[in-house]
Fold this sequence. Notes:
With 333 residues, chain A is of the alpha/beta class. The first copy, chain A, is built from 8 helices and 14 strands. Helix content of chain A is 32%, strand content 23%.
Amino acid sequence: xxxxxxxxxxxxxxxxxxxxxxxxxxxxxxxxxxxxxxxxxxxxxxxxxxxxxxxxxxxxxxxxxxxxxxxxxxxxxxxxxxxxxxxxxxxxxxxxxxxxxxxxxxxxxxxxxxxxxxxxxxxxxxxxxxxxxxxxxxxxxxxxxxxxxxxxxxxxxxxxxxxxxxxxxxxxxxxxxxxxxxxxxxxxxxxxxxxxxxxxxxxxxxxxxxxxxxxxxxxxxxxxxxxxxxxxxxxxxxxxxxxxxxxxxxxxxxxxxxxxxxxxxxxxxxxxxxxxxxxxxxxxxxxxxxxxxxxxxxxxxxxxxxxxxxxxxxxxxxxxxxxxxxxxxxxxx
Amino acid sequence: xxxxxxxxxxxxxxxxxxxxxxxxxxxxxxxxxxxxxxxxxxxxxxxxxxxxxxxxxxxxxxxxxxxxxxxxxxxxxxxxxxxxxxxxxxxxxxxxxxxxxxxxxxxxxxxxxxxxxxxxxxxxxxxxxxxxxxxxxxxxxxxxxxxxxxxxxxxxxxxxxxxxxxxxxxxxxxxxxxxxxxxxxxxxxxxxxxxxxxxxxxxxxxxxxxxxxxxxxxxxxxxxxxxxxxxxxxxxxxxxxxxxxxxxxxxxxxxxxxxxxxxxxxxxxxxxxxxxxxxxxxxxxxxxxxxxxxxxxxxxxxxxxxxxxxxxxxxxxxxxxxxxxxxxxxxxx
Lengths: 333, 333
């Protein structure tokens, strides 16, 4: 294992110290329990937005804390759920009287711990709602999941809900919006290589020199199929077809198209894949009204990509376009 | 070789088609000769800003075309200089009557071809200046270079000069600013792994399972030293010390600190490295007034990082803060 780290046990803490040093205007890092919170405090009466999950998917979620997106994030160790006490502390920190929405990716540990944190916070008098994101069409159940996994849709949803919270949405309305976004987003990923969790020191799984995994999870969980590597255009079609058919997306739909690098895939290849994804969307009669291209939800240094598509009405597009200023996503500010 | 590509010969063209599809509001791609130009045209009387070089370093340079940064970029094949006819066409496309500045990374092919393009454009009546960027302190001469290589400083310089051109700087003033920035910026990089040029199909160089290359070039050119991998903090010190000593940066200097991923290194490790780089800067009495963290000048999927530091007076900081809207760098717009 070759990594730019010191002690494998200190990777998450030291990376958080780096984030704190780089972005003091945007976020503050608390340790023990560990959470990242916006530096300027949550405005009175605004619903607080919290997400979290295992580390190793950067910039998600810590990199989406700031203005116009998440108010706080709870990072676990690499590919390990954060604990309820982290979530409880973060929830308390961002409650500004209007309650807190938990955006939870559907992994068993995350769901269980966010449920406990919700109970703890509610017994402390904070109104908390949770929406579980499960946008991955690859598999119905998975290694760490009952039901579908939460993946790239989470990135879009955190942006959109962040804008809505800024706009003054109530907790009820924000919960409804988050659910509606989740109902209208689908994703699927693939990998050319594994990744190595620092404390494990060995690749999470093995892939042959000519193999790829279609439908991979963001922790390297098995997908639909292991097969020989194909030209990129065919790979993109293998991801786009199940996405389009699952919702189903329909002729005339406006969509946000998000082509994501799993981390180790260079941007030149992500754009090459975007080209084909956009072409296929058009062939299905979809109108790509917004897009996102790059590494936003990663699996350490895994080579591969995922595609996410969200059906987007004018409200969603307006929320998408609203200013955002976080380390990992920024525009209009 | 496992890559998300179709035919190795089509990688650059297809990635450019993807960029064109993703960012029609920002840029337009011309083929044969190939260049990327801002979509909204250069305002009358503004100096045009052109850069370019081999592909494989994305988002640099194509991803820096838009508003507030480059007006055009000429991509070569992967790790291969673009040709003079590309540069000439791009220069003509962005001349709005005030001349064109070429920002050239110091590689023999780039320098030679930009010189030819400058002559061609000048014989066509366009006032052209060139500034050669040579910020890499690792080696004095290199495989593809007479003199020092141009690396991470280029990213900062393109942003700063883009803002200055927007502000109405004349060609003389812009040339002087670009030279001043280059005089005040230093960089050094390292690699844990090689990368593979698609048309070559084999890694550019070999590194042992426990080895790293200190002072690597962005095409995998040899650096100062091949040695056993060390903890990240020591590696960062191996990069920071020569940077600080070379200028030399002095107690009390304000600096922009840029910690860059070579592509395959995940963001969690880049922030971990930033933590140490910022700490060392402080120990040297430097004040980090701005920073940039992430993959901005890459070497395909190479794992590694580079550190760049620029001495920044108030003018530089103001230009750095000015709005920019490109696919690869965006704020305030």
